[in-house]
Specification:
With about 220 residues, the chain is α/β, with parallel strands linked by helices. It has one domain: Rossmann fold (3-Layer(aba) Sandwich), CATH 3.40.50.1820. The chain has helices at about 15-25, 50-65, 75-85, 105-110, 115-120, 140-145, 205-215; strands spanning about 1-5, 30, 70-75, 90-100, 125-130, 135-140, 160-170, 190-195. Helix 3 links the parallel strand 3 (about 70-75) and strand 4. Helix 2 (about 50-65) packs across helix 3. The model has no long low-confidence stretch (mean pLDDT about 95).
């Protein structure tokens, strides 16, 4: 199993630790890592985008010569996981998304920025969005420019393996209906969308993790 963390998260997150322990109990090999600009990896977060993080995953799998895996992506990691499954379908046996956010730079972040913030990005400046007292996102021009060539909406390829996308009904970041569009296109013909009533975007509560583990 390969676990791919979300934006501004890392491999020490609660879901990663849970899945690591689950794989140990089930005698499944487990791989997780920090993207560039995240956790213990080198680089400044504002210097990277989806294209860079997709390359991190692709290069790591190639270096380790992993030929078959269950790929699990959380939020932004779900976007990266989808990219890999569509481009290397023979190397993925199952795709699991946990509150996946494909194309979020276009459909979510950009739409939420006001006109002044958009002009700031266009002027090569960073927009800081404070989430709470302890956490904020830094949206850089690189995040948008480096991601625009990797939108799932522009990919016509097909991943025919089992695809399970989990959503939280209380998710205020990625609406639980966000990925309903995949019912209408042909990217993931074996798609199952599962919504958990009490879950938020993190989906790190005990019930969500227990439910997700049933599909591993």
């Amino acid at each position: 199993m390969i676990f791919i963390h979300g934006l501004k998260s890392d491999m020490k997150g609660q879901k990663s630790v849970f899945l690591n322990n689950l794989c140990r109990r089930k005698d499944i090999s487990f791989l997780c890592f920090d993207f560039r600009g995240h956790g213990k990896s080198s680089g400044d977060f504002v210097d990277f985008g989806i294209g860079d993080w997709y390359s991190d995953l692709k290069n790591l799998i190639k270096y380790l010569n992993i030929k078959d895996s269950v790929v699990v992506g959380s939020s932004m990691g779900g976007w990266v996981a989808m990219l890999y499954a569509l481009n290397f379908p023979k190397k993925v046996s199952k795709l699991i998304g946990i509150a996946p956010a494909p194309d979020f730079t276009l459909n979510l972040i950009w739409n939420e920025l006001n006109s002044k913030e958009k002009e700031k990005i266009k002027s090569n400046k960073i927009v800081i969005k404070k989430i709470n007292k302890e956490f904020s996102y830094s949206y850089s021009p690189k995040l948008f420019t480096n991601s625009k060539n990797f939108f799932i909406k522009d990919i016509k390829k097909i991943f025919r393996g089992e695809t399970i996308l989990f959503h939280g009904a209380k998710d205020l970041t990625v609406n639980y209906k966000y990925n309903d569009r995949f019912y209408k296109n042909s990217n993931f013909p074996e798609l199952i969308n599962i919504t958990i009533k009490g879950a938020d975007h993190s989906m790190s509560d005990k019930f969500s993790l227990k439910t997700i583990s049933k599909y591993i």
